[in-house]
Automatic annotation (TrEMBL):
Subcellular localization, as worded in the UniProt entry: Golgi apparatus, Golgi stack membrane
Organism: Daphnia sinensis
Enzyme Commission identifier(s): 2.4.1.-
Gene3D superfamilies: Glycosyl transferase family 10, C-terminal domain
Database matches in InterPro entries: Glyco_tran_10_C, Glyco_tran_10_N, Glyco_trans_10, GT10-like_C_sf
Protein topology in the membrane: Single-pass type II membrane protein
Entry protein name: Fucosyltransferase
All copies of domain Fucosyltransferase N-terminal, residue ranges: 116-228
Amino acid sequence: MESKNKPPMSFCILDRHPTQRSCNTNESEFQSLADRRVRMRSPMMGFSKSGETFQSSATALFTRLRRPRTLVSLFLLVLVGYLFVVSSNRHVIDNNQLGLTESIQPEIEDVGPESEPKRILYWTGYYDRPDMIFGFGQQPFIKAGCKVTNCVATADRNLLDQSDAIIFHAGQFNLSDLPSKRLGHQRYIFYLFETLPLARDSAIYFSNVVDNFFNWTMTHRRDSDIYCAEPYGKIKRKASSPWIEQLPPTLAPGERPIAPAKLMEAVRNHPRLAKKDKLLAWFCSNQKTHGRREDYIRQLGKYMPVDIYGNCGNLTCLPKNSDRCNNLLDEYKFYMSAENSLCADYVSEKFYRALKTDIVPVVYGGADYAAYAPPHSYIHVADFASPKDLAEYLLLLDKNEALYLKYFEWKKDYDVLRGPLDGWCDLCEKLNDPQEPAKIYESMAKWWYDDVPCYPGDSFIQTVLNHDS
């Protein structure tokens, strides 16, 4: 220890600016203090910026490194590092030799922040179904197999401010029961599955009161913002059905052509013909319609037998649309799938019920059926000049069973689905699309009636009757 009455020599040594020293020291004292400082500080803690201290520290470090124990430790450290590098390189080479040219690290997708749930509020139900038949919550979207499933359906009006879409079923639209306020981002949706050809001037939801009210449409019309055929059906190509790129298609290894004897006798004892001993059936509930289907079928009945069930005929099948009535169709070769109006894209459950069974539908409607069903799966009355011509064709098919069976070949490639839920999936997807443009319908009546008007049944019936006379 230094004496307290001696000058504080250490302050001169530790000064960060040695050129500013003003104290006098002798050489032996300076060297003693420097040696003591080197011993007190480890080389690994850094060196002083003074030249003298750096030199002393370097000397001490070199002396320590010359010790055998330190050299052995450094040698082991270098050896471990070398083995690690060699092992890593060998691992990469082995992967390349196995054909694993890509990184073995799992690919990390940048999924971004979790999107906020989109709430869909059923302001009305669908007739007696408050859940719109689809259901409540998020589960219906998951069950439907939607690509986007973060939507939640509810009928709780207390959640109006938290809802992104509000659905109004046109059949239950009430001006005295509308939301009290409306947020800018919300979509008001017009929901309808009837044609209503005579309601343009009577239905409140087509009046000018609702001009600029609805943002989106969700109907059976294919020009809707959300095309939805849930109440009716759709036809979907089977996953197992091959897309034929050439005719004839090539055969798979080991596959053989169909034996000629089987082809020539395919019609005999065909299971689809086992119970069919009747011609044409029609199930009718409304005796007078805008499309005047009843007049057409009455005229058709002059040339061939037509069995009419329900209010329009003298035959009954109860309960309606039951399995019992569907099984009854097995006795017939043809089913009259006649819509009550000739309006765009109106293809109701009548058509899909017939396609689901082994019966050929004869369609009477205003839709482009070629867009809905495969070729040779139905017979359209519009393809014949008159009911008489149609009757002659149906009688021909009745007598020629091979031609009749051609109307079922499409079934090997397609399935008929009842109650498809694609529309709800599309709705959820659109609500999650930030690029979806703003939209509003200035006039629902113009879009529903004027842009694609229905064809009056009077005009059609008059045309075909003129050909019959």
